[in-house]
Amino acid sequence: MTNISRLANFVADAARIVESGSGEAAIVAELSPKLKALVSVDDWLPAAYAVADGKAYQQHLLYADPLDRFSVVSFVWGPGQGTPIHDHRVWGLVGVLRGEEISVSYARSGDGSLEAGPAERLPQGSVGAVSPDIGDIHAISNGLPDRSSISIHVYGGNIGTIRRSIFDARTGSARDFISGYSNEAVPNLWLRRQAETA
Amino acid sequence: MTNISRLANFVADAARIVESGSGEAAIVAELSPKLKALVSVDDWLPAAYAVADGKAYQQHLLYADPLDRFSVVSFVWGPGQGTPIHDHRVWGLVGVLRGEEISVSYARSGDGSLEAGPAERLPQGSVGAVSPDIGDIHAISNGLPDRSSISIHVYGGNIGTIRRSIFDARTGSARDFISGYSNEAVPNLWLRRQAETA
Ligand SMILES: [Fe+3]
Ligand SMILES: [Fe+3]
Ligand SMILES: [Mg+2]
């Protein structure tokens, strides 16, 4: 039995913060330490949402606000797995729950191509951010060659449903994609039936 | 593949209505026709949440607001199954998706016992209401002797987590209970991964 109430409490905090009417910078500033606390203890993610796949990384939805104001997703990276270069169109926070990740940011250069910044290592317990304001284009990959890594991402929208872009670094050209999610069912964050019936 | 977007749209409507700041009567008046529309088409409930159990009726959480403002639950009644006499402490709407239900309301009489009102038949497609304001004590059972019935309930709180009462009709005495939920996972209301990955 996992300690799912940690995730329930985080989702409640996120709902409160996102519904407060604060702007992006304030939301991200308030939510980052909550995500850091969530990924500092690895006892709450149910096994179904920690499963890697040999073919591609998995993005398991954990919770999405019905009014598309935020979503929480578990990304599971097998050895050697990573994303193409992509954007988000909304703010995003990345917290590393297990293992580690490598994040590379990209900036448009004069000739239209995308120039890679330095590879940033995100160790277990760390939190990074992306957004249209602070830099929205990156690629993420597993930082471990021999094991899965898992990161918990929070976005300022229902990320699996947003039409966004995948980029070719050399030409800078973009093509549309909508990521969807890997899972048919999300965790029940609240208590399961006790002895009692009614 | 079920048409899960019907449920996603209903949950979004419910979130909008519940967050509007209206009072209970206005919320219930606005939400009732949405629930009636939801239960008028039986093509959206995933099979996992339509499963009866030989021992007791099932209450499958479909969605709960992280701030406990509302919840949506699928109740599955096998032949002969029904609830004890119970209350809710919050408003509740009952919409019959499949089969039919019998609802009996109870009122406190002079000697402290609970007096049963007439048995009300809720056919497929109908919507009923309970609440502390309009009468909060009832018992529900399957109206069909030979098949399962399924009803979709919406409550003005996270019903599985609320401490409420089960009653003895003769003495009127109450005992505490918290119902919980039957399921470990709830439906992903949003799109599953397409061909594309990122
Ligand atoms: Fe990303
Ligand atoms: Fe009831
Ligand atoms: Mg909400």
From TrEMBL, chains A, B:
Give the UniProt keywords, A-Z.
Dioxygenase, Iron, Metal-binding, Oxidoreductase
Provide any one GO MF term from the record.
ferrous iron binding
The record's comment on protein family reads: Belongs to the cysteine dioxygenase family.
Q: What is this protein called?
A: Cysteine dioxygenase
Organism listed in the record: Bradyrhizobium cosmicum
One Pfam family, please name it. CDO_I
Give residues annotated as binding Fe cation. H86, H88, H138
Q: Which InterPro entries match?
A: CDO_1, RmlC-like_jellyroll, RmlC_Cupin_sf
SUPFAM superfamilies (UniProt xref): RmlC-like cupins
Q: Which domain of life is it from?
A: Bacteria
